[in-house]
């Protein structure tokens, strides 16, 4: 099943594009990192406000940066799809990739949790108001999972199957 | 210059970072470099987006605490970057793109200080609510500078001419 998926991915038009245009991979890597920067900066600043930095600004105001983080995430996901599609064997058998997928899932679950549970309370906070403890926990996990995803991503090269 | 590169690549530290068969060697230093870049560029980009979008409506003073985080990230990226440079000095120093990357980072960091001085008085109070056109231009330029720094940094893996001093000597 895995091998068939790999063969199919390698035969897609996207994979062919990557093989045809040598510059596509390096440019996508740069975009992947720019997406990371946008995500870490925007969502990170919001997480830090929830945790208590820059309390003079209401969290809802800092939250306006989050769409930029989402944009960065989408750029990273799209370029990530390009990497996995063109060289699936380098990822499917790579334990760093497995861990990265797990941390991405945890990151996603934490986002869902944040918007379902503490977001309502955080949204209505005024300047100098402290976020509830459960929101702080979620913000801290957000920072931790982003760091873990980055770490696993960086380790991909060193756990490549031969 | 070549003699220096040969010597540096032969030092115990250079060999250790380059050849240690452990994820705590080269891979971990690379991760720290990415983490530092994510924090420094990310926080700077977020603060400049704030200047472009919302500084008019909210006093910037509470965001003062975010500026040291840019420098924390930069310190992580700098220390890990120096270690990467010690591991592969020829690779970086013989590649013009490396110097372009350093120049972009230098200007981007100077901009961080520039915009901070314009946002805050010495006592931490906001200077003014509405950012001036010059501040807006500077904030926009900062986004381009950081994108350029990330692009050139990432391209170093592809644009280098010599990986090691030995290659340089051979003229490979």
Tell me what the structure shows.
The complex is a heterodimer of chains A (162) and B (172). With 162 residues, chain A is mainly α. Chain A has one domain (2-159). Chain A has helices at residues 2-10, 13-20, 24-51, 59-62, 66-86, 89-92, 95-116, 119-123, 133-155. The radius of gyration of chain A is 18 Å and the shape is elongated. Chain A starts with a helix and ends in a 7-residue tail after the last helix. The mean pLDDT of chain A is 95. Chain B has 172 residues and is mainly alpha-helical. Chain B has one domain (2-170). Chain B contains eight helices and no strands. In chain B, helix 2 packs across helix 4. In chain B, 38% of the residues are buried.
Gist of the model:
The complex is a heterodimer of chains A (162) and B (172). Helices cover 77% and strands 0% of the residues of chain A.
Radius of gyration of chain B: 19 Å
Shape of chain A: elongated
Radius of gyration of chain A: 18 Å
**Extended strand count of chain B:** 0
Number of helices of chain A: 9
Estimate percent helicity of chain A.
Answer: over 70%
Class inferred from helices and paired strands of chain A: mainly alpha
- In the residues of chain A, how many domains can be counted? 1
**How much strand of chain A?**
under 5%
H/E series of chain B: HHHHHHHH
Oligomerization category of the chains in this entry: heterodimer
Average predicted local confidence, pLDDT of chain B: 92
Helix % of chain B is: over 70%
Instruction: Quickly count the helices of chain B.
Output: 8
Shape of chain B from CA axes? Answer: elongated
Biggest β-sheet strands, sense, barrel of chain B? none
